[in-house]
Design brief:
The complex is a heterodimer of chains A (201) and B (382).
Chain A lengths: L2 H8 L6 E5 L5 H10 L2 E6 L2 H10 L3 E3 L2 H4 L9 E7 L8 H11 E9 L4 H10 L23 H10 L3 E8 L7 H5 L1 H4 L2 E7 L5
Parallel strand pairs in A: 1-2, 1-4, 2-3, 4-5
Antiparallel strand pairs in A: 5-7, 6-7
Chain B lengths: L15 E5 L3 E2 L5 E2 L2 E8 L9 E5 L26 E2 L4 E2 L4 E5 L14 E2 L4 E2 L9 H15 L6 E5 L1 H12 L6 E5 L7 H15 L17 H15 L2 H7 L18 H16 L2 H13 L10 H4 L6 E7 L7 H13 L4 E6 L13 H17 L3
Parallel strand pairs in B: 5-8, 5-11, 6-7, 11-12, 12-13, 13-14
Antiparallel strand pairs in B: 1-4, 2-3, 4-8, 9-10
Helix pairs in contact in B: 1-2, 3-4, 3-7, 4-6
The chains are: A alpha/beta (201), B alpha/beta (382).
Amino acid sequence: MRPDLEIIQQWVQPGNHVLDLGCGNGTLLDFLQRERGATGFGLEINPDHITTCMGRGVSVIEQNLDTQGLDNFDDGMFDVVLMTQALQAVRRPDKVIEEMLRVGREGIVTFPNFAHWRLRWGLALKGRMPESDALPYKWYNTPNIRLCTFKDFEALCRQKGIRIKSRRVVDGQHQNSWLARLWPNLLGEIAIYRITRENAS
Amino acid sequence: MPDSLPSDSVGLVSPQTIPFDEPIELACGQSLERYDLVVETYGTLNADASNAVLICHALSGHHHAAGYHSMDERKPGWWDSCIGPGKPVDTHRFFVVSLNNLGGCHGSTGPSSINPSTGKPYGPDFPVITVADWVKSQARLADRLGIQQWAAVIGGSLGGMQALQWSLDYPERLRHALVIASTPRLSAQNIAFNEVARQAITSDREFHDGRYQDFGALPRRGLMLARMVGHITYLSDASMGEKFGRELREEAYKFGFDAEFQVESYLRYQGERFSEIFDANTYLLMTRALDYFDPAYAAGGDLAKALAPAQCEFLVLSFSTDWRFTPARSEEMVNAMIQARKKVSYAEIDAPWGHDAFLIPTPRYTDIFTAYLDRVAREVGA
């Protein structure tokens, strides 16, 4: 199993009601349904992904976060709201995070770290927009329009009074590495954050 | 007329008439002592009767959904594009049941049938039927066919309303409801169009207060107008523009009021053809069933609350240029399902054909329909 899925599934309790923002082809939800008895929906805009979800029994709603938001979901109706590798592709990540924690008790967010050493290196030495395994696009065709670093994300959470319950840092292949744990903002490529508005844990 | 039957056709089919002698109580308070339903089936019911699919028809539909009645038939059944071997509703895997609804005019008991208590056609005395009444009669049909639970109930437009109603009235008797190009209730504009159609029929001098059969008359003109109005709402501005534009039948304006534009002659032709095959009282009844459909009404207008009993999974599909039942109406339904914590999937399909798009196999529509039902088939071991 992909290590990021392994980490995420540990944070989803059996029977949880889950919303997956940008659920792709439904791999994660399918896994959570089968392994954790979770229920819930995925939101997606890619037609092929939507068809794949429907074919595998993952409930999927065609809905664009940028234009439609999450207005159709009630406050606190989900136990967990997931967003894997999609935060950097929405127009207003700050608003999406607030909405996540309005409709869900807890959020799990993963995104690529723009301060990873290889990206810093590329920009510093070559003077070109960086590319990597986690960010394989050109500057002009990338869907990733809101890149940030782990530090940026954590600053946003502080500013919005959002508590980070856990953070796990992995490399581009979603492997756990001790180096990334040691110096995450420089050596970590992808982080998995578990966030909430609740105070006590 | 096909020279030979296409390999993905269910082939030659023949309808059967199934009599029901137990009285059925209707929402209007009246009941029918007995009635017939005309039914076609395609495919084979499996040993545990788990692979049955019910097809619900729309306003002008009927039991003949797929295949051909004879080699001389000009066109196959109305949903032949989606029902057949290897098609989305795959008859290699599913046992497909399609009927003409109660009140219809294609063989099931309706206004043009003989009223046993008078020996004359029911005409206007036939009770007004609701979507819930249809579903009740379909449940009895399922009993008769030995089907305890449908793998799926599928319908477009008014047919989608029946699928939705099934999920509320017989929650344990269907696994999936496919609600396509439909709406949880008609808007004022929808009802207004229906009213124009009804006025066209009832104001035709040949209508005779609905007793035209007794007079050996037919309100052809009224029915034709009703169909013309209806037909406009089934197409989109773009698809009409594409098909006809401002094209004239002859080269120049004639400065008169005959059908000069192609679109005029098309509508007249459609209306005339319809008026020859459809019953006016059935048309009134079907449009009324549309008007009355509003499952949220009993729950104080709260659709999510009305959905509480549903146990099936839903697939809701809308079409981008459908202005009769817009994507927003489907989304209203989907949001209520989400609120009610039902399992639901939704897609808005880009198609230029307006409301009629649900009958036209565009690639994305076919892909979704196929993928979803493939999964349903796997689920029931079909």
